[in-house]
Amino acid sequence: MVLSVLVVAGCLMFSDMKAWADVEWKILKQLRIKEKPLDVDVSLDGQNLYILVEGKLIVYSLTESKGKYSIPINKSFNTLKISEANQAIILSSTSENLIEIIQLFFIQNFDLSGSPFQGRSDAPVTICAFIDYQCQHCAGIMPLLQRVLDQYPDRVKIVFKNSPLGGEQLQLKAAAAAIAAHRQNKFWDYHHLLFANFDKLDEAKLQALAAEAGLDIQKFNFDVQSAEIQGIITRDIGEALQAQVSSIPAVFINGKKLEEPSFEGFQQMIDAELGKQNTPLPPTAK
To answer: What is the pLDDT of residue 87?
Structure first.
């Protein structure tokens, strides 16, 4: 994909600005596309360039330097604008006196290997939750996730990925400890103990909870330090950053960010995903 759009840093010279002796400027990026660009705007986070051409909207990733998506639209649209409220795209047509607002949902692709999960491995809907064991809000969302699993027992899979965004040493050790417990098929016992003690965690407590969960302490301590488990945590943190996770818990349903962390919010997104796959919806829980 090639696009002819110049993004420049420069200044406009006006007659009342006589104090300016000169101006410096530079081209930040130059792209070429086959189609004529009708309008261009950049996403609020600066990661994507939205290019309007006749009959489609091109989403160009500035971070990856490539066109990623092409979305068909009404051929009469000739201007676009990014809404600051929710990053929706506003398209307008001067020939048809038409305005249209569209919302883009970018689907994240997460590597789930080595991550513990609840539910059927082949469930049509995957709920990926980024958590931190010292986070009160993460502890608070666990009953909600369990309620969702109870409502959709054969339809959803809930995957936990450790994402201690603060990067503190104890946060990282708690994350490694949870995966080490997973290696002994004791993840859920240890997971619940960690959240029950989220405000009391220290290195001694991690050891005490491991013993309480019935873990082999020698293997537990070896696994916590292993390069493989450290690699899983590094991967999870990298994926959280790539998905622009700025607070936790952060939940993604089939790769799309859950914006409304309520049971109704879960229901709406899960039912939409099941509807896409022509999967019969479960009966409403009484």
So the answer is: 67
Residue (of 174, 242, 186) closest to 214 by Cα position: 186
93 φ, ψ (degrees, to nearest 5): -125, 120
Domains of the chain: 5-9+27-102 (2.40.10), 117-276 (3.40.30.10)
Q: How does pLDDT run across 184-239, given as a tens digit for each residue?
A: 999 999 999 999 999 999 999 999 999 999 999 999 999 999 999 999 999 999 99
In whole angstroms, what is the distance from residue 122 CA to residue 279 CA? 13
What angle, 0 to 180 degrees and rounded to 10, lies between the N-to-C axes of helices 169-183 and 217-224?
130
Handedness of CA 116, 118, 120, 122 (dihedral sign): negative
SS3 200: coil
Q: Can you give the pTM of this predicted structure?
A: 0.75
